[in-house]
Design a protein that fits this description.
Length: 213
């Protein structure tokens, strides 16, 4: 049965745009039939702990002889990786916080970016190569090409590097900006653009959910 792994990392449970959009994808995915299952992990309500030792960045065989035994941390990391490997499609809600990734999502990425396990190092290991990953990115301000803030988005580049370049996944990015246009007076003139971007993102996610996996 095709399986979707949905990750949410917004700390706003009520008005989050990224959560709204991952919900749109998940609903369209489920509409394809009962065989299209979803596993949801809320990285805020059910966080992954920070890596406790540098050795956890490497496959066990690549750790030095002086690396400590880390059975509990290894068990957590193995469970996170197993959950990802079990999914046919990955869906990630990635709101921009302070121009970067929410810490909850960064910690999850730290657990799955393991050279020698999911990423190449001493071998060409890349078991997730070609598997779809849909990244839903929401941003409060305006980051259009040509604006002064165009290069301030440091959310998407590291996610793309880890999931796309390192793990070899087929990354699809859906982005909505101006999410604060209804709350910040200085962005009030962007409300129509936000509404247009939101509607376009919802349509794109429904389309992706109908064909991926």
């Amino acid at each position: 049965m095709p399986s979707l792994l949905r990750l949410d990392s917004s700390i706003d449970p009520d008005t989050s745009v990224s959560r709204r959009l991952t919900g749109v994808f998940a609903q369209a995915w489920a509409a394809r039939g009962a065989e299209h299952t979803t596993v949801t992990r809320d990285l805020v309500a059910d966080p992954v702990p920070h890596l406790s030792h540098a050795a956890l960045h490497w496959a066990p065989r690549l750790r030095g002889d002086d690396a400590p035994a880390l059975p509990e941390a290894d068990a957590v990391q193995e469970a996170v990786i197993a959950q990802l490997l079990a999914a046919d499609v990955l869906l990630v809600g990635a709101p921009m916080y302070n121009y970067s990734i929410p810490s909850q999502l960064k910690t999850w990425l730290d657990h799955v970016h393991v050279p020698g396990v999911l990423a190449p190092f001493d071998t060409d290991t890349q078991p997730l190569a070609g598997r779809p990953a849909v990244i839903v990115s929401s941003r409060g301000g305006v980051y259009d090409v040509g604006t002064a803030s165009a290069d301030w988005d440091h959310t998407l580049p590291p996610i793309g590097l880890i999931l796309g370049s390192a793990l070899g996944m087929e990354v699809h990015v859906v982005t909505v900006s101006r999410t604060l246009s209804g709350a910040v007076p200085g962005l009030a003139g962007e409300r129509d653009r936000f509404a247009d971007e939101l509607a376009a993102a919802e349509a794109e996610l429904v389309e992706l959910a109908g064909k991926l996996g």
